[in-house]
Amino acid sequence: MATLYDLKKALERSIDTASQEKTAVSSGTRLLSTSEYSDGFQALREASEQSNYRSFILPQLESLLTPLVRSHGQISVLEIGPGPKSVLRYLSNSLRSSIRKYDAYEPHGQHATDLQMWLCPILDTRPLLPCLETPPIIHRKPFTADINANISAGTARYDVILFCHSMYGMSPKREFLAGALGMLDRWPRSGLAIVFHREETLRLNGLPCHKTAVHPSGTICVKDDNETLDRFAPFVAGFAMRDSGVHKLILDEWRDQCRVLGRRDTACRGYLLFSSPNIMVSFASEATGLAHLTLNLPSALRVDEPRVKNRQARLHSPAAIVRPTEILHVQHCLHWAAQHGTGLTVVGGSHSGQCIWPNVVAVDMSAFNKILVIPNENGPGTDASGLVVAEAGCTSGDIIRETIAAGLTVPLGARPSVGAGLWLQGGIGHLSRLHGLSCDKIIGVVMVSASSGRVLCVGHVPNNHLPDHAEVPDNADDLLWALKGAGTNFGVVISVVFKAYAAPMYSIRHWVLPLSCTLEARRGLQDYHKLVSAITDPHTSVDAYLFFEDKKLRLGVTMIEASTSDDAGIGDKISPTATPPSATRVLGPEHESKFVDNVGLFDTEMYMSGMHGGHAGGKTSSFKRCLFFKTVMATHVADKLLAAIESRPSPLCYFHLLQGGGAIGEMASDATAFGCRDWDLACVVTGVWSRDQDGTGASQAAIQWVYKVAHDLLRLSHGAYGADLGPYPRDAALAVKAFGSNVTRLVGLKKALDPHNILAYACPLVNAPSHPALVIIVTGDSGAGKDYCAAIWASSFVCETRFTARDVSISHATKREFAAATGADLDRLLEDRAYKEKHRDALTAFFQGQVNERPGLREQHFLDVVNDAMSTDVLLITGMRDKTPVAAFSHLVPTSKVDEVRVQASKDVRRDRGGCLEDVDRDDKANHSMLHKPDFVFHNDLKGGEAAKEFARDHLLRLWSEDLQRLGSLVRTTSDFPRMGVEFRHVLGITQQPHGLHLCASLLKSHFQGQWRRVDAIVCCGAGEIYASALAFSAQKPLALIREAGKLPPPDSIRRQGLVAYFVFLIRGISKKQDSDRRRRDSSRCACPCGR
Ligand SMILES: Cc1cc2nc3c(=O)[nH]c(=O)nc-3n(C[C@H](O)[C@H](O)[C@H](O)COP(=O)(O)OP(=O)(O)OC[C@H]3O[C@@H](n4cnc5c(N)ncnc54)[C@H](O)[C@@H]3O)c2cc1C
Question: Which residues form the FAD-binding PCMH-type domain (predicted)?
């Protein structure tokens, strides 16, 4: 997909072409007029809203502002170049309500006026920043890099300074940012400067950031009509033609260019798509403290020219690269990062895209390159022939070359230049079936802890290799477990101790089979599968490659057989093995064979030596993601592979299949952090392009292809390989599947062992995103103050608990579609009550029409808002007009607790607030007729938010408290019990956990909404007697058990609880009628606001 930059260049080129063809074009260009600029700005913003604002900018902003609001209570914001409306309008109400001060620099006159209007709206419109304590100051001039000038111009210090796509004209950008950092509030109110920029990297010459995230898949969707394109194209080009006649001609040409370069997508009919990668970089006021790091390190350790293999990493511009030579230097780096609230990357073999990251300091470990081979020492366990201590700057090739001299080897990967990232995160190679993964062979580690900066030693490390001051931490077993598979996340690893084995010789055989049609391709893959399934000897592994050569599809197969002197017999020379008859039968005679040692093995990989004329002469770059499969050759998987290879964007892209099984699968999946072991084949989806296309649309297309194929295959896979994954949004779904069932334990360890998230750019350890645990539907009459209360309640969760919360209006989607269909002003529909009321009937009719056409629309809207709030703990939804929303929608989110709070206010109050009373009367009747009872009712007649806050404290915060979470964690879950598809939650098990019963009883007591003094007894039907008796004991109330005759609990179980005194009566054989009468009577006594 063409980028905006590609489009800009094409628009510029078309002027040159036109000027050659039409003399009139020599009229020259001019800057855009104010209205052209505004129109273009608006067109670009509309085009970006869906993809970039909603999927990147908004979540990033919320994740940065939420902790600030939590620590500061309320915040002040300075926005640079917001245009006519601030990006803050996309935030949840609760975050907007936390802004007490807002100022801006907006040099564009009309935008500044519009912004002022937007911030201080006319009567009846609720301001978007409702809690401002002082009127906003809009500086109608450009922001300068000179902090003194800015401060003397009357700007105060701020908690947040925001540049949202406004750094384009600023040069050098670093100076402008340094100016902004000088205006941030300082300790104890540390602030943030936040930049969003429309590129994948933002070069700031050594300014270390607080956090950064990239959105390489950002797109913009421009409406494909002449009017929109005529506004959009000049804005992208940055100029117009001086002569109006020529301008018209050029607009014709530019429309064509947009249509030629813009991609069309059936999911986005009527729009043109352009690639628009985005980056977010945030800086803390301490960002300028790089000097503190370098002062503590000898100057020779600063590296100007990084030695980086990965081509994407080379495009990133780090804050600095340091190359420590002693453990003390590594400790300095970690201390510095912790003190300055920033992250670090670590460079091993530099094969990943994330070892160098924009505006982050990189710690290059290449000086730690010693290898010590200890033959005949086994360490714990007896299967090894020696040990190898390898420092973290070594490569696989270094280790293999060193060990082979002692007749030993370590199972590593297939490329000699790959480094520590491989053995810390897996390590799949030709000896994996025989000895296991590289990480399985690690028995000891020396590292510098990310949390304490101390030198730690875990597992078995030979004494003479222990650094001074190395400590064995209390959690050494946990740490060693985590380092074997997820080892890049907890500290900087200095060295590891591997088990080593007798070095084998390898018999290598290659086949290349032409596949002339789909049928033959399927058959080829089936033959390969047959061959692999027949191989049980772990000394043998068979790889396959699906690739195109000379425009023809081919299947390459490589069989590797390892033999050691043990296999050959004492005194016998190791010699090549004969081709197994099964291979000849299935594949025919081999095309090539070799007999090599471990070093020679590196050169035999088909993708290096055989395909594409030997890696296209070595002048290519590649991008890989790897998935694990049980049955690649199941028809649907094979067909997907064949379809995907047909859609490759460059002739060099291919699939590499590696055989699993053997020792990989023999280890239990929770024995190490590497949790994906149950697979037969690993499929490496490899996008390749020629090196001179690095950073262009061609490389983007190949990377996009890899992700598309990987995501398509993910559902069918048995996991993803974590070693390749980084902090890219596109890796998130793969990362969720990278550690199997170990992920929850790893997420917990990451929080404990890297609490400041210093190693934030390693393979992400993430739980699958989940629906909000608590969904509160806020209903009520027009004018009752639903949105206002929802915002206060969301901020109560954010400020008074450790949970994340947001409030959304479900009607936004309808308003957006209504505005698009009718031309109504979307912003006013969202923000201007009078305008909204004017369109109320039309909107209702529009929605009803939509529902008639799409009957599942209400459910769809509900799921959309809930899915948008994935990983938020508490979601408050307003704007629902359904009469019984909990009953109607809670089944759609079975893992969430869904409650309804109805906000009520008197007619007079609602009228004063501009509510629509007719509507209310209609609703009231309907409500009464249905006798619907919400979970809570809040009376919102008073002015101000105090009552709402108190209500949140008394009722809502308890719905999702730390104690409830703790109780939840005590409930053991058994899947598929007592039958498939049933998840069994063993609630009685709570009583067997320390303090479980007490916790449960105290929660039951505190969650009761009524008055305990009005309760006469606790009545318990069925099997809850243990909890009921504990509650009765705690509340000092008598207990009544209702049981069918003959089903009483044995008296000793009651005595065990020490509760006998509180049994006052037991009812035997009570009839169903009596039972229900009693229940009704009891529930009417319940003092919960709505009878619950
Ligand atoms: C050409 C190529 C061939 C490959 N072949 C194989 C193969 O045969 N088998 C296989 O299993 N995988 C293979 N891979 C995948 C490879 O294992 C991963 O890309 C791995 O992460 C690379 O590690 P590295 O040290 O070379 O890269 P780096 O980019 O330097 O490091 C990768 C990650 O490890 C972290 N890290 C590095 N050193 C340390 C340290 N000392 N302490 C803490 N964190 C550290 C880095 O910060 C980064 O997050 C291959 C990849 C490529 C590009």
Answer: 314-503
